[in-house]
Amino acid sequence: MAMEEKKNNRGLIVRLGALLIYYAVPVSVLCCLAGFLTLILLPMLAKNTYISENALMPGSANPRYSDQNTKDANEVVKEILNLKLVSTKNNMGVQNLLVKHMSETGGDVYFHKFLPPEKTFKPSRFFVDSQQQYKSNFEECNKNSSVVPGVNVVGIIRAPHGDGKEAIVLVTPFLSDNIHIGDAFSLGLGYSLFHLFSRTIWLAKDFVWLAADSKYGTHAAVAAWLKDYHEPIFYHSSSFLKSKSLVDSLHPTEEKGPSYKQIDYNTLDDFQRAGTIAAALIFKVQENQIQTDKDNLSVYAEASNGQMPNLDLINVVNFLAVHRQGLQTRVESLFFMLSWKWLSVLGDILEWLGKVAFTLNPEWKFGLPSEEYVQGAAGLTSSIYHQALGIPTGAHGSFRDYQVDAITLEVSPRFSLENEMTRISYLLKIGRLLEGVVRSINNLLEKFHQSFFLYFLTSSSRFVSIGVYMIPFALLVVPLVILAAALCSYKSGGLIPLTKSDDGSVPRDYSELEFTHTNVLKSVSGTCTSGQDIDAINLGLNLHSQKWFNAAKDVLLVHLWAAVVAMFPSVICRLSLEASEMKLLIWAALSCLTLFVGSGISGVIYPKFGRWRETDKESHIEGWVALKAFTLGITTIGLVIMSVINFAAALLGVIVLVPMCLSVYPLKYILKASIMKRTLLMLLSISFIILAFPPFVVVALRGLFDGFSKASFADFWDWTEILWSWGSATYPYLFLVHVPCWVLCFRVLLYI
To answer: Are 285 and 298 in contact (CB under 8 A)?
Structure first.
């Protein structure tokens, strides 16, 4: 009985698979439409955020950040602003001031010197940041006096009730060359928190304050410090701190006060560490960004290759900001989508459908107001885009590279911070917010793990989890698998042919070629005894195998060509060229040249048996079918692998590639079809081929963001340059999955 049940189950699965393959075209179309419909419904399927880790307990304790801390912060702000009016002999005025105040609190203080990042594209170190390369850059900087290093100031408060194994980091960036009110505000706030935590008794984790010199960008400053924090340092930079100008500025004098005499400037270059970093906050101020009736707090969470911090960290910030300090929190959004009329109409339709469903069954609560749907769609699209791009939206991305949960908080006050009363009030509000966040993180006994790591944000209080957004991805990938299986098994009804022969008869369908496999089985089992039949079968199998071998070889060569094309920027960047247009033209010329040369060489090395292609019409049909089947299979594998590395990039990939893969068909047969079918297939094939062309995608995105008057194909070079300079996995995906798929589909379209 058990054996019979297994056979029946196995037979049922086989019959179901055969049925799917036979109806591959309608099933693929239905899955594709269902996938896009699910994407449209994602803003409605978003859930409200909630705090999963009970130990965080945000807002459970009264804040200790008082008016006195606010006054201390405001005094530091004034001192920093006054530095702009004073002529100094060196560019370390802000750093020296911070060292003076931080040393008075009793914490550990030191300088950290770093160099500007190298932007040269080197394929051999695409995903690896070599310590040896960092060392050679440092030595080159010492030899070249024209390279001015950046200098961070780092302070550490050792936890009175901790074992020094964990730490919380607060980063406040500032531009040392041109300090402004926003930088002064963040530095003053950082000092007041540093002073507060030096006198608290509840601190169980070390507190690290990093005043990051953003001369070469905040990310470069933070990444350099983190690299030295987590990896051994094989150089010593004491000669920098013992230079005459800096020693003179750090020597104790009567004017600097007795407290400043306690600084040992000979140890300020000694790199010091705290415990393992549990979480990090990057705080910055952006004045007059958006005019609203409330002070705004923007949260940036996207890190490298679509990585996101634990959702609980964002939930704690959102809870304290909204319910304790009265701030309006928001995430990055594509604001131009808010003016799309068709999106608003779609929101109205979905809102009406939700009301109808609620009247039928009150438990069906999936309706969403039209305005919230449009805002959610704009936020969701922004989250998917920035995760797919694989580039951090702030300096928090450098922390995520070391598996540290971090976010960037950017505040936008309603009124100018130049007004002292406004500044004091805002210092108190933001100071208590950051104190509450640090206190919640301090309560944790382990790393963030309870909440989600894989999610899309529609707003600061709503998210789409992986269990929901996996559905459209699966629905869009399945058609590629079904269609590839149908092309390989010759069982698909309606795939081919499109037209009749000259004599009015329908050419032989692939289902009739099943005799080949049957006869082979007979010949192997000995039931087929005719020598002529066996020779004919062997000849047919050789031709059949040769077609699939040629298709596999073509797919492999195209992927090798795409890998070579991806390395051309490393050569082009060494040329003395400034214009992006010229770089793109050289890149395109080299790509086309290598494609034609490679095609010619492959034709010489691997003969095509052209006489069979010319005389056998069915063999010709089988050629493009085999090519398309391999293309669909390899593309599916690439998309699935990319979904593990960066799911958002894979999701955008299926949105662009699947319609093209499903609709592409040789023009030779499209032109012989009926008028209606010919028009539809030609429109779909050519349209999706154009829409999936990578430079066209970049131009379309630039046009949506900044207007089509500013968009050009040169943006494609700038876009790819940003990808490889940041080491985004989207760059190899583009040239190992997307470009080969596009070239092969274009080859199918022009198959002769």
So the answer is: no
